[in-house]
Structure formats: structure tokens, C-alpha cells
Write a structure and sequence with these properties.
By secondary structure, this protein is α+β, with helices and mostly antiparallel strands. It folds into 2 domains: 114 residues, Intergrase catalytic core (hpI Integrase, Chain A, Orthogonal Bundle), CATH 1.10.443.10; 41 residues. 46% of the residues lie in helices and 13% in strands. The protein is built from 9 helices and 5 strands. Strands 1-2-3 form a 3-stranded antiparallel sheet, with no helix packed on it. A two-stranded antiparallel ribbon has the order 4-5. Helix 2 packs antiparallel against helix 4 and helix 6 runs antiparallel to helix 7. The longest helix has 16 residues. It is globular.
Length: 189
């Protein structure tokens, strides 16, 4: 199991609380294949130690929920944010990720909205020089495709993604959508 942050996450400015928050959110999107809306709904009690490992409990679309084990590096990122935000002893129903007060690098105490997560991702992409065409949903697609490329069984990837059926997970599989030079060199016209 890899234990390093994705390059785009590692390059964020985390010298302030909002940077730590953004790094934790982006890492959760990548390492759990979660939707931005589910991340926005996380409460402090949804990140918990289940004895031998930390877990995230997501409330998904349609009243569904799912539990995802937290890998060690993600655990460190989330705990660093929680400690910096002073949320370690917060009530369990406190919003884990809160909106920021404009340009003050402080949190508002109010739950972040999924649209704020999308805007934050665009700002962070711009800061590190990546194309602005990516979105939180792109992280979901990339994670699902990456797992499938590593020959993780489709059913396991389906469970990680929280999909009702394997057909939906297959829609996210980008392996077959690649056009390679080798294919184009076969054109005999």
C-alpha cells in the first residue's frame, strides 16, 4: 500500500488552517472515491476509530450510507486538520469540514457546501498549475479506473464507489477510452 500523498495534494500550501482543510478534503476525494456532497456532509463523529483502524462514515445520495476504512496517510492528514481546527473534542454532530471566512484563513463554523468544494478544487488546481477541467467527480473517475487497472475485482471497486450495481461502476472505467498511437498507426488509408 502506498503511503504518500498524490502530487497535487502534497503541493498545497498547508501553513494555515484552510490549506490543511483543503488537503484533507482533496485526499478524501481521491482515497475514498467519494462524492463532493458526501464529503461536505461529514460530521466529526463520521471520522472515528473502530478499534484497529480509522473509518469514515459517508451519507450518500438517496439516504444510503457506507463505511470506508481510512488508509494510514489519509488518517494523518485528517487528524492534522482536526487538531489545527480544534475539532478533536467537538460534539459528534459538528460539521467536520467548514466553510472559510473570506480571505481570513479561518473557519466559519458552518458546514461547507459541495459547491464550495468544487470551487476550492478549481482554485487549488490553478494554484498548482493543473488544468481547470478537473473536478471532484474527476477524482472519483480516476480512483475507480486506477483500482480497475490494478486488477481489483469489479465487485470490490463497486463497493468502494458505493454503486448499486457493477454496470454503474463500469461507466466510470476509462481504461477502454484511451486512444493510443499504436491504434492510429493501424490506419491503412
Amino acid at each position: 500500500m502506498a503511503t504518500s500523498e498524490p502530487a497535487h495534494v502534497a503541493s498545497l500550501d498547508t501553513t494555515h488552517l484552510v490549506g490543511l482543510r483543503d488537503r484533507a478534503i482533496l485526499a478524501i476525494l481521491v482515497y475514498t472515491s467519494s462524492r463532493a456532497g458526501a464529503v461536505a456532509k461529514l460530521r466529526c463523529g463520521d471520522f472515528y476509530n473502530a478499534g484497529q483502524q480509522w473509518m469514515l462514515h459517508f451519507n450518500e445520495n438517496g439516504g444510503k450510507s457506507r463505511e470506508i476504512p481510512v488508509r494510514a496517510d489519509l488518517q494523518e492528514l485528517v487528524i492534522a486538520y482536526i487538531d489545527a481546527a480544534g475539532l478533536r473534542d467537538a460534539p459528534k454532530d459538528t460539521s467536520l469540514f467548514q466553510s472559510a471566512l473570506k480571505r481570513q484563513r479561518r473557519l466559519s463554523g458552518k458546514r461547507i457546501h459541495e459547491n464550495d468544494i468544487c470551487r476550492m478544487m478549481k482554485r487549488r488546481l490553478k494554484d498548482i498549475g493543473l488544468p481547470l477541467l478537473y473536478s471532484p467527480h474527476s477524482s472519483r473517475v480516476t480512483t475507480i479506473t486506477d483500482l480497475l487497472e490494478q486488477d481489483v475485482p469489479l465487485e470490490d471497486v463497486q463497493r468502494v464507489a458505493g454503486h448499486a450495481g457493477p454496470r454503474t461502476t463500469g461507466i466510470y472505467d476509462r481504461r477502454k477510452r484511451k486512444i493510443t498511437r499504436n491504434i492510429l498507426e493501424r490506419i491503412s488509408v
